[in-house]
Amino acid sequence: MRLNKTKLYQKDNAILWYFPRAFTSYQIDDFNSLPWQQNPIRVFGKEYLEPRLTCYFGPQYTYSSVSWPAREFAEELVQIRNELFEYVGFLSNAVLCNYYRNGADSMGWHADNEPEIDQQIIASVSFGATRKMEFRHIQTKERFGVELHHGDVLIMENFQNSWQHAIFKKKVSNPRVNLTFRRIITH
106: domain CATH number? Predict the structure, then answer.
């Protein structure tokens, strides 16, 4: 299958690719059986509950004091991972799943730059409610946003070392599921 793609941004070796409506055959209810949980996280020395639900599949992984044990891919995610490889040539060995129950759920500024993540590509696949992903350059503070609709794919290529991203609160009552496929470096 040939997908439409757009290069949304490029600066030096950081490129943001957008594939609109690549996964529209899936519905948000397809992910109801995943083992969603709300974890305590440590931010600037204080502990909070994550402002969304998450689950993880892949090799052992830790971020913001949340440690995920190794876990085999859920059946619901294997086909999406395989299609992503077919469409864009990226084969991940891990996926962090985010469930935004409504517009009150969010994610603050961060970069997926833990040392065990291969920084070359992170693929983000969105389902459900449209939400805007905001980007901010770490040094220049340049900012822009991308509206992500149901079935959209966003490929962040070499983006994590110089850019942060966030999903802010929004007046929306419908849920959103975001799957962030990545490659964890194992030894």
Answer: 2.60.120.590
Six token digits for residue 7: 């290069």
Query: Quick check: 114 and 62 in contact, CB under 8 A?
Result: yes
From first to last of the 187 residues of the chain, give the pLDDT tens digit: 557 888 999 988 899 999 999 999 999 999 999 999 999 887 778 888 999 999 999 999 988 778 899 999 999 999 999 999 998 888 999 999 999 999 999 999 999 988 899 989 999 999 999 999 999 999 999 999 999 999 999 999 999 999 999 999 999 999 999 999 999 998 7
Amino acid identity, position 57: F
Residue 135 · residue 145 · CB < 8 Å: yes
Domain count, the chain: 1
